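Homework help board

Subject: predicted structure for assignment chain

Our instructor gave us this sequence and asked us to write out the predicted structure in token form, then describe one feature. I got the tokens but I'm not sure how to describe them. Can anyone check?
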Amino acid sequence: MSGSARYTAILDACVLYPAPVRDILLSLAQAGLYHARWTEQIHEEWIRNILVNRPDLHRDKLTRTSSLMNGSVPDCLVENYKGLIAALELPDANDRHVLAAAIAGHADAIVTFNLKDFPNAALAPYQIEAQHPDDFIANQIELRDWEALAAIKASRARLKNPPKSAADYIGTLEKNRLPQTASLLRGALELI
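My token output:
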């Protein structure tokens, strides 16, 4: 098992799809604001969910995306967590693998839209908290604003098909359930 001196977060499958949320979270991790981690099982879950909603996409393309993700963040894959799953209790047993990965991956947080699936009482013994991605991203911006804004600007600049203005990019984040982040970025429009 490896650890990190930086704040470490397990990214749940629901924040890896949709792509705009995944991209901003990975951009902040690549900029060194926190250590992002996940598992191959989490990859499989977000890929499966995309294919259900977008049957026009091919698994090969999504598998390539997961490989690029793995290459973009050092030490992102958590392994040796499956032995912990059976002993964990969560409202949805299918989410136990995420908590197990957080424990094995020395995570401080699980970033998820599904906060109800990760109650504080279940996570507290492991000193892990569940955070909504909007709160998590806003915290990164508030803690290290210049680095976060530079990472977000780079994220927006990578959008080529189609390119997005800063205002359009912020609108996309808002549509993807990141209103607090969108509000903060509106205050720094010229920097992103």
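Reply (TA_rk): Your tokens look well-formed. For the description, you could write something like this. The longest strand covers residues 8-11. That's the kind of observation they're looking for.
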